[in-house]
Design a protein that fits this description.
CATH topology of the largest domain: Rossmann fold
Shape: elongated
Largest sheet: 7 strands, mixed
Distance between the termini: 60 Å
Structural class: alpha/beta
Order of helices and strands: EHEEEHEHEHEHEEHHEEEEEEH
CATH architecture of the largest domain: 3-Layer(aba) Sandwich
CATH superfamily of the largest domain: Formyl transferase, N-terminal domain
Number of strands: 15
Strand order of the largest sheet: 5-2-1-6-7-8-9
Low-confidence stretches: none
Mean pLDDT: 95
Length: 315
C-alpha cells in the first residue's frame, strides 16, 4: 500500500521501519517541526524525521494542528491509507479522510478502551495493571475512541518503568500495525466498536504529576516512581535544607516491628542498599535519589548526608 505516516516521537520509529520492511511505500511523512532543545538550544529534528530521511521518504512539517494544506499534500501523495503513531497533534476530519481509502488508523499503547489519551503507559503502571498492550484503531474525532482492528497483549513486569515498557510496546505496536495494514490491503479489515462503559483516560503528563506524599501507601509511591521514569520523575518534598528530592528507584520493604506505629515520613533506618521511610501504609526503601543540582546518589549515601537518626521525621 501507499502510506502517509504521521508521527514524531521515537515510539513511532519501529512502526515506520516495519511498514517499509514489509514492502509498503511511504508516500509522505508528516511530523512536528524541528525544535530547539538542550542546554545549547540546538535545532533538532524529530526522531521520525531523521528516520524518514534515512528511508528517503518526503517530509511535511506543519506547525501545530495540521489543516487544509496537510490534507492537500496527503491527497497529492497518492497515499491510500493514513497511519498515525505518536504524532502529538489532533487531526481534522479533512486530514483523517485525505487518503484515498477515506480514513486513517492509529497505533495506541494500551488495550482500548482502557487508558485513552496521551500517557497510557504511565497510567497503567501507576494503577497497578497486570496487563497492557497495543491497539490499532481507526482515527475518529474523539481521541482514541475509534473502533479497533488489531490488539496485542503485553504483561507488565513487577519492575517495569515507563521508559522500558514503552520500548517494548513500540516493537509490539509495529508488528500489530503490519498485521493491520495487511488486513486492510486484503479487504479483510473488521473493526470492533469500543465499549464506552469501560473507557478510562490518561491525560498528558506534567512535571508536577510526579509529586508523592508520604501519606500515600508504599505500593502506590513505588508504582509512581516507575510510572514516571525517565520523565517527569517522581519527587517528594523533604522540607528544610533538603527540599525537593527526585525519587529515581524505590521498592516496598519490610516494616521494622519497633517502628510499626511511626507516622508517615519517619526515617526508619537504612539497609545495605537504601533508606527506609514510613508511608501511609508500609515502608518504602529509597534506592536511588537526586537532590536539585546534585548527582544521583544511592539511598545509603543520601541517608548519610541527611544526618538524621532513625525515628526522626524527614519532613
Amino acid at each position: 500500500m501507499r502510506i502517509c505516516f504521521l508521527g514524531s516521537d521515537a515510539f513511532a520509529v519501529p512502526s515506520l521501519d516495519a511498514l517499509a520492511a514489509a514492502g509498503h511505500e511511504v508516500a509522505l511523512v508528516v511530523t512536528n517541526p524541528d525544535r530547539r532543545r538542550g542546554r545549547k538550544s540546538a535545532l533538532l529534528a524529530t526522531p521520525v524525521k531523521e528516520e524518514a530521511a534515512r528511508l528517503g521518504a518526503p517530509v511535511h512539517q506543519p506547525e501545530g494542528k495540521p489543516g487544509a494544506e496537510t490534507a492537500a499534500r496527503i491527497a497529492a501523495s497518492g497515499a491510500e491509507l493514513g497511519v498515525v503513531v505518536a504524532y502529538g497533534q489532533l487531526l481534522t476530519r479533512a486530514v483523517r479522510a485525505a487518503p484515498s481509502l477515506g480514513y486513517s488508523i492509529n497505533v495506541h499503547a494500551s488495550l482500548l478502551p482502557r487508558w485513552r489519551g496521551a500517557a497510557p503507559v504511565a497510567a497503567a503502571i501507576r494503577a497497578g495493571d497486570a496487563l497492557t498492550g497495543v491497539s490499532v484503531q481507526r482515527v475518529e474525532r474523539r481521541l482514541d475512541a475509534g473502533p479497533v482492528l488489531v490488539t496485542r497483549e503485553v504483561p507488565i513486569e513487577a519492575d517495569a518503568t515507563r521508559g522500558g515498557l514503552r520500548d517494548v510496546l513500540a516493537q509490539v505496536g509495529a508488528e500489530a500495525l503490519v498485521e493491520a495494514v495487511a488486513r486492510i490491503a486484503a479487504g479483510q479489515a473488521e473493526f470492533t466498536a469500543q465499549d464506552e462503559a469501560l473507557a478510562t483516560h490518561a491525560p498528558i503528563l506534567a512535571k508536577d504529576d510526579g509529586a508523592v506524599s508520604w501519606d500515600q501507601p508504599a505500593d502506590l509511591i513505588e508504582r509512581t516512581v516507575r510510572a514516571f521514569s525517565p520523565w517527569p520523575l517522581a519527587f517528594a518534598d523533604l522540607g528544610g535544607k533538603v527540599g525537593r528530592v527526585q525519587l529515581l528507584r524505590a521498592r516496598r520493604a519490610a516494616l521494622p516491628a519497633e517502628r510499626a506505629d511511626a507516622p508517615p515520613g519517619t526515617h526508619l533506618g537504612t539497609t545495605d542498599e537504601g533508606l527506609l521511610v514510613m508511608t501511609g501504609e508500609g515502608a518504602l526503601e529509597l534506592l536511588e535519589v537526586r537532590r536539585a543540582g546534585k548527582r544521583a546518589a544511592s539511598g545509603c549515601a543520601f541517608a548519610r548526608g541527611l544526618r538524621a537518626r532513625p525515628g526522626e521525621l524527614l519532613c
